[in-house]
Amino acid sequence: MEVDLFPASDFDGWAGTYDQDVLDETRFPFTGYQAALQAVLRLAQPQPGMRVLDIGTGTANLAALFLARGCEVWGTDFSAEMLEAARRKLPQAHFLLADVRNGWPAGLPPVFERIVSAYTFHHFDLGQKVSLITGLAEHLASDGRLVFADIAFPHRAGMARVRQTVGEAWEDEYYWLADETIPALRQAGLDAAFTPVSACAGVFGMEKR
Fold first, then answer.
1. pTM above 0.90, yes or no
2. 32 and which of 5, 8, 123, 197 could share a cystine (Cβ 3.0–4.6 Å)?
3. What is the pLDDT, as a whole number, of residue 13?
4. Above 60 in pLDDT, residue 176?
5. How far is Cα 160 from Cα 155, in angstroms, rounded to an integer?
6. Are 107 and 53 in contact (CB under 8 A)?
7. In this predicted model, what pLDDT tens digit does every residue of 144-161 receive, in sequence order?
8. Minimal CA–CA distance to 209: which of 142, 148, 149, 147?
9. Pairing between β-strand 190-198 and β-strand 176-177 as defined by DSSP bridges
10. How far apart are CA 124 and CA 120, in angstroms?
11. 68: Cβ–Cβ under 8 A, 6 or more apart, which residues?
12. Closest Cα to residue 148, out of 124, 108, 121?
């Protein structure tokens, strides 16, 4: 049986301190966190009434930005405790307990104008990233867009420099490497671009061709 390296229980236990932790931008990996969320908002270009899905919504920090722009906001997460925090923060939004790895959840509308995410997909290797993203893209409106912020680097050398700088604070996870991810996404039929935000954060904008 395959071991889940990132079980929901880990995130249930983190829900109570998550907002405090991510706002400490002095430490890896959250340097640039708020700027990354703002970059998602800017690149997504939300309009009032637009239907937006936040994958791995956590405590709804990203979802809150879209709700403030008048969007119809939906969020999914596999952590029940994170979702409880999200519901308390945004009672006007719609939240579902679901794992993105298990396909499109029942109860979600079939089509969204925007699908966004923040600090979720570094838990998946490159093959999983591409497979999951292309699956999500099937639920985009004709002029839809995916915009994801995460722990990301332009290339492996850049990641190595940050790893050396942060020392013992480094954790080995499946961080995005733009020079590997963008060609893989393009090969899968998605136009993609990378916008760096800090030494360890960046945003990927993706659209179906």
1. yes
2. 197
3. 86
4. yes
5. 9
6. no
7. 999 999 999 999 999 999
8. 142
9. unpaired
10. 8
11. none
12. 121
